[in-house]
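Think of the structure tokens as a kind of shorthand, similar to the way a musician reads notation: each symbol stands for something richer, in this case the local conformation of the backbone. In the example below we present two proteins back to back. Begin with the first one, reading the sequence and then the tokens, and try to describe in your own words what changes along the chain.
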Amino acid sequence: MTPEEFVIGACLLTPDSVRFASSILDPSDFRSTTHAHLFRAIVQLQQAGEPVEPLSVWTKAEELGARGIGVVELHEMLQRVGSAESISYYADQVKESASRRRLVHIATNLLREAGDETQHPSQAAQAASEAIKNIQAGTSHRMTTKSLEEILAVQEDHDWLIPGLLERGDRLILTGFEGGGKTTWIRQMIICMAAGIHPTTMNHLDKPLRVLVVDAENTEAQWRSQVRGMTANAAKYGTTDPAPLIHIHAKGRIDITKDATLGEIHRLVDEHQPDVLAIGPLYKMVSTGINNDQEAAPLIMALDSLRDRGVALIMEGHASKGNSQNATRDLAPRGSAALMGWPEFGFGLHPDPTNESMTIVTKWRGDREAGRQWPKELWRGGYFPWTGETVAPNVRQGMNTGQPVRF
């Protein structure tokens, strides 16, 4: 008796076992098309509250397209099972066999597409990677638990890129009003990181970070004119010249939800191995608007596929139009509410109406982890365009004299 036949027989013997099998298996997991139709019939009958027994399953399966099996064979499967207690074991075997078949199919496609000179190899690699992730997601069906004792026994483990501020996989969205300085602050942060400078305290990092920029709005000419002085200052004050560690794609609007475009960005990640990916603005990375959760979902999925590569994401968004006095409402990213709950950190730059030289850093979502060293205020001027209250006075003095303060 094959594992597929055991699963069908066990469901017929004990209809309560259908919920165990269906939590593990999908009809597409069955090698036999007939068995797939039978299992689909069983699940549909159980969901409809109808009897799950040989005659009803055979009738339903025939409606679904099953051929070459009769009620007698179903009775034989039922009688040969004996007990349904092992259904999870046999369902796991069916799932494992299905996963192996899918892996063979992926490998076959990858070999064929790798020889196709009309597409870049990274596209084939990305398609294979996504297909393998789907297999992994499908095989992680079992919900498990750990005792609180086990959880507390594990020491806190951060994969820090910048201790106390940013770790691999973090997602930051920065919004603000037009001309409020958000693009400048993002550029300042990534240039400091690449120069070995902590972007909010200005202390030296243990090592500089590699940064990839995908700019869907600004041109290379704008980068040249706007960061030349900042880059020179960072090279002078930091531990290294940041320019060689920052790679920029600045060719205008893109559609990251298209496989070809997303595949190219993954190729750039492969090529440059960045620690940080600065990408945006969000509304210029899709061909449509981001007005609801349905429109936001493909964008979020694409960005998360990049995040899964082990990079921290720094993204620029645009605030909603409206009264600038209401920072919390107006600074949330324009469009879908899904964008508000997605990142680890969401900040907006809000001008201080009482001080033209100061900008307030407003949180439009609560941090997922408290205690990070993000500033609450930014002042214009100084060694870099923006200086936060997180920079100690002696560090600020050291920057102005070109003499870094070490701790």
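Once you have a description of the first chain, move to the second and do the same.
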Amino acid sequence: MIYSKVIIVGGGPSGSTCAWKLKKAGIDCIILDKEDFPKTKLCAGWITPRVFKLLELQDYPNITPLNEIYFQVYGLKKRIKTKQYSIRRYEFDEWLLKRSNTKLYKHNVKKIKKQNNEYIIDDKFKCEYLIGAGGTFCPVYNVFFKELNPRTRKARVSTMEEEFEYDYKNDKCYIWFFKNKLKGYSWYVPKKNGIVNVGLGGFFKEKNILEHWEKFTKLLEDLSLIKDHKFKQRGYIYYIRKNVKKIRIDNAFILGDAAGLATTDLGEGIGPAIESGILAANSIINNTEYSLKSIPKRSLPSLLFSRFKK
């Protein structure tokens, strides 16, 4: 059986950030993930200045500044100067994982039990601290937190998107709120090296999402943002921050989407994932409380006012 003081289930941004902080403090940890890296991850790839600073991304090679964003809310159009960034999760997640300098085991976690103040995973791995960073369907959440933090349909965001190579002529970022009666928003995010990400997310039944997608892609065509592209969109679900009562039980923690921490206005998940990873690591390092109090619940204030920050 492989022993590590800390085992992190999930090698995405929250898990790799937690590992990065733990390793810097000299604490032994390993990561379990069911897939190899790099791997495709559906995500618009939005990075705020707060995340840029927390992750010390000055040396990250493939980041695209977004200095202007074009908003449309109920037909009202607004151009906002801001300081945001876009990344490709395919590259970003692998870079964070490598930087963490943490051993990765490809393993699909099936069974977790607590025994004598230790956590045993599939009778193959054992640890003192267990970190659940495996996204919406994280097994750590399912085993230890599901009854205490029940998820509701009202907090569930359904999304559909595609990221692809495209010789785009328009390098501006667009966000539409409530377009075509969508209870959410849609986006067009250009990235480096001829990559663009388009998608939509909102609170609706999955059976209606294709109808919204068809209207959205027609909008992209009408605006000449995307022309003559055969879309191969994919969907996923996650949860915004509601009814999060417990994020630590004994020495088991949940982070990011495993805890349902996406912001309540834009459904932004990378920021809360990164911050929860850092907070969990600091809790273990310093033997202190693990709390969400410092993580913003909304994204729009940062988006609208980041241009004033130095």
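Compare your description with these statements about the second chain. The chain has eight helices and 16 strands.
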